[in-house]
Amino acid sequence: MAVPRPLTTRSEILALHRDVLAPSFPPVELVDAEELWRDVEHGSLEALGAFDESDGEARLVSGVVGAWFPRERILLVLYLAIAPGHRGAGVGGALLAATLDAWTAAHDPLAIIAEVEHPDHHTASEAHGDPTARVRFYARHGGKALALPYFQPGDGPGAARVPALMLVVLRAADRSALPGAPLRAFLTDWLVACEGAVADDAATRRLLAAASGPDVALVGLDALDQLPVGTLAEAEASAPAAPSAPDGSR
User: Fold this and answer.
1) For the chain, which terminus, N or C, has the lower number of CB atoms within 10 Å?
2) Sheet (strand 165-172) strand order
3) pTM > 0.85: yes or no
4) Domain ranges of the chain
5) What are residue 215's phi and psi, to 5 degrees?
6) CATH 3.40.630.30 fits 1-109, yes or no
7) Across all residues in the chain, what is the average pLDDT?
């Protein structure tokens, strides 16, 4: 597989969304293509991709998108995917290794972590893959889950959240735990970036409370029964709606 390189143009980001991400993730977990481009253009997200040029035409066949939090020195991998027809034969492992090396060199992060579906709470589909297979993939590459009841924040006020995701540590100096203070600060910043504010609901309080100690343990991906799960009650299933102005306007 070709070494992944930064994707920086609108056409590259739209191709990443159309050809790689959309066939790999359910719509509720995927941002709009133009929103993805705006975030890359403004620097709040970074994207890398690898191209297949075997037929003389460069085709984007794999990609990864991450968000860098410089204050906490944490990099969150939002999406890592291979286009249909190019999966297998170690392509995903090569992409992951190259990406971790590139972002480690660029940022010297405290940790690189990824959002991953909990396989006991998300079902496999022909269209979007198998959560159990994804967990096995990350386990083969040394991933461990943070002991947090994590959910994916809604993409804006009032937007649906995705329950029962895990934060899997892909690279960190300490393989047993991460310090609680920067992790809690990262979670707070991520919630604000996505939902506009830190919600005062039970799911959010549980998540932040789990990161309130001196450190947060890492759990092997072969021991997920020891992991708290970020399930959501009906009242917690969406990010809080943006408050209305006094005259009723938004």
Assistant:
1) C
2) 5-6, 46-52, 59-69, 74-82, 111-117, 165-172, 144-146, 215-220, 177-179
3) yes
4) 1-109, 110-235
5) -155, 170
6) yes
7) 91
